[in-house]
Amino acid sequence: MGVPMQFVMPDLRPLTPEILMTVLSLLVLLSDLVIKRKETIALLSILSVAAVAFTFRDSLGVTFNGMFISDGYSRFFGIIFVLNVILTVLISVKYIGIERVNFGEYYGLILFSTLGMMIMASAGDLIVLYLGLELMALSTYILAGFIRYDVKSNEAAMKYFLLGAFASAFLLYGTSMIYGLTGTTNIKAIAGYILLHGLMGNPALTLAMALFVVAFSFKIAAVPFHMWAPDAYEGAPTSITAFMSVGPKAAGFAVMGRVLLDGLYPIKPEWSAVLIPIAILTMGVGNIVALSQTNIKRMLAYSSIAHAGYALLGVIAGTADGLASVMNYMLIYAFMNIGAFAVIIMLRTEGFKGDNITDYEGLSKTHPLLASLMLVFMFSLTGIPPTAGFMGKFYLFMSAVNAGYTWVVIIAVIFSAISAYFYLRIVMYMYMKDPKQEVAISTSPSMSLALAITLFGVIAIGVLPASVVHLARIAFP
Amino acid sequence: MEQVMTNSLGFPILSTLVFLPVVGAAFLLLIPRSEEKLIKWFTLAMSVITFVISLPLFTRFDKTTHVMQFVERHAWIPAWNINYSLGIDGISILFVLLSTLVIILCVLISWNSIKAKVKEFYISLLIIEGAMIGVFCALDFFLFYIFWEAMLIPMYLLIGVWGGPNRVYAAVKFFLYTLVGSVLMLVGIIVLYLYAGRTFDIVELSTKMYPYEMQLWLFWAFFAAFAVKVPMFPVHTWLPDAHTEAPTAGSVILAAVLIKMGAYGFLRFSLPILPEASKAMTPVMLTLSVIAIIYGGVICLAQTDLKRLIAYSSVSHMGFVTLGIFALNIQGMEGGILQMVNHGIVTGALFLSVGVIYDRTHTRQIADYGGVASVMPLYASLFIVFTLAAIGLPSTNGFVGEFLIILGGFTANQWAGVLAATGIIIGAGYMLWLYQRVFFMETNPKVAGLKDMDGREIMALLPMVILIFWIGVYPDTFLGFMHKSVEHLIARVNTGGASGPAIARNIIEVIR
Fold first, then answer.
1. Is residue A37 part of a domain?
2. Candidate from A143-152, A252-261, B378-387, B438-447 with smallest mean pLDDT
3. List of chain A residues whose C-beta atoms are within 8 Å of the C-beta of residue B186
């Protein structure tokens, strides 16, 4: 008779936010059975993520033998995810009614997807990472196709699903190769093993790294793995486009930072050599193709691709400052991008799509306040001070220059100047043309709140970025 | 070497100047759109108050020192060692005053000519004022960049929304040209910041040494931003479009203040931070300046559009300014700075005058005018003052500035001096010819029966006339501000580099 196995209960405290999130998500999902008013469910989901956010502070720690890490890094991303949910729900309430898909599952899926993101950001192990990624991705696939009767929405979900599944396969392939080489899937232990056994330059390791980069590039929609993004962004319900362009992207960067900077740091020269061309291509294709778009959702899809390119600069820098600048940028991007999508949603009314750029003609005359908000978001996306977009880009550029990538930054600023053209085009349509048609807008209190929050974020971080920058800087050890 | 910085007033006067207009703009947001009269009067009151507040700068400025005055300093983004620090010296003070004055005149001249989106117009105007003053006061490179770029947004709207027929093209061109230049400078600023030990403090940056190679790179990075703004040949092509299409107030702001920022950038950043590269690049800069003087002048002769002609004359005049600055001696530089002010006054006044008549005729074609002097005698007499000042007739301000510049230019390089002098002759040619075609000859039926200027318009032009003669007759009121700062700057340029002292002594002897 052997000694009975000792079961040690792992420390669950670092997992509190995730456990709470799981419980609350299920409750929100079930509440659909008893609550008939969908607005109440929306409110419930906002309260849920807010409650989860309150548990972040006391959850710091590592558990399950390093498989799950709750640190400043993952919790900073957690704040971005929570913000993403709150803003998305606020802009959805009326919108999904207009699209006639006002179902309770909508909110549950958003919460599950966010749970997946949180697990990704906290993953200390490649398997946990994969779990989180799949939870996030599967929920988002459904959300992208949420307008069942709309062909474009179906197409969005289908493309997103097929290519996403493909990316997952890459990730698994990379994971299995890493496991074969190092005998572990723990991210920290991988770096240790590589250093200990001098695996740098090992072709199999390089291949595994390349597979990881491909998988992550799919998630953040980096060129040449961006093909799904424009169609998915255009076809998905606009609120979900806003959600997808921030949450999964931020989560992608979170795992990218963790895997590349923790696990594969010993082969940084190799992965930065792969990432630099990807970053340049991403900025180039994103910005240049956006120039010729006539559909604003498509334009913002390409713009979102370009922004992933800027953010990659921080990863390439490969320093604590670099990662802090990525985190900072993702937070700022959440504000300005969801703000822009909120304006787009306001133009969507019964029987009027309002996603064509020409629909913005003369908006400053018919709806001056809305036009001025869009103006702020567009200038912020361009990166003109005193908006937050400038601070975000500045930090990225600074950390990349500091790491010695001045020439990449020069390319980035040129593309950033090119991007001014298509953002300004919206401003030009709004302010410098006369309205051709009467454009009605759909207002609701929750939408106003979302716009107020995003505007506040864009201006406040633009004028007083000190505290956010500080928070991002201390987050990474 | 830490400079002693002072604020003799004990009152954050510069912050007030920067933010009072912005606060005013915020208040404008609250005024209902239909209350156009209230909006105008409120804006006028804001701009006058700002001007009055700026007057103590003029009287309380200590002319015996080059250190920054009226300094304010607060930590802003401690993580990046960025401070909110403002201050002015003898180089920047005149531009702050010019900015506060010009906005009043812009409000006056736009009073009746802006009819659409009145509220947005005056909000833009006030935001521009705040950003302009901020640019000249910023003592932190990052803060400077913020104001420098923030200025683009309202200016883009000003040109694009209230401009002429081809306004959208002009606005986008203006924006993209300036933005490309600025972002390249941004990279330069970051490189400088990291090299200098993570500081953006302009005074501190101006005392450090940088490797020659790096200075050269940075010089061209800064050049990208400043030369576009000046605008220097060959990146001047946005200016004629922007000037021509902008509404009168926009043209005035562009001419009087905005393009001065480029030259100011050279004085504040390129020269003191990169002295060796600046010296090495002098031949290039002098050549480009001379080309701008002559090329800009010759092109003026071929213009058929009033505003376009004045726009190209700006290219020529700004050529004088950069020539003076890069002569790198006291006369040239003081002449350059004074000429920046002069050009602001004279060209600003010319654009204001064109606005006066454009409001009546709605045409900018020179061919549509003729014989205006007999219809609007008062207007004609004011216009001739501006014309002669633009040419640089003695007893007007233009003479003092151009004389000093040519003197300095001649000392630096005889050819530059000689060629620049021919620019004055061309200038006399196109300005007098313009005057002749518009004001003399047969009275064009299109201008017959026009009313002469009213009180508001005279109010808008009178300050310029006074300044033209004041500077022309007694320039020392204004030159007195800059002596110490310019001496200090020249000393920095000549001794700041490692290979400095011997050459510096020679040059200083030559000057004396």
1. yes
2. B438-447
3. 394, 397, 413
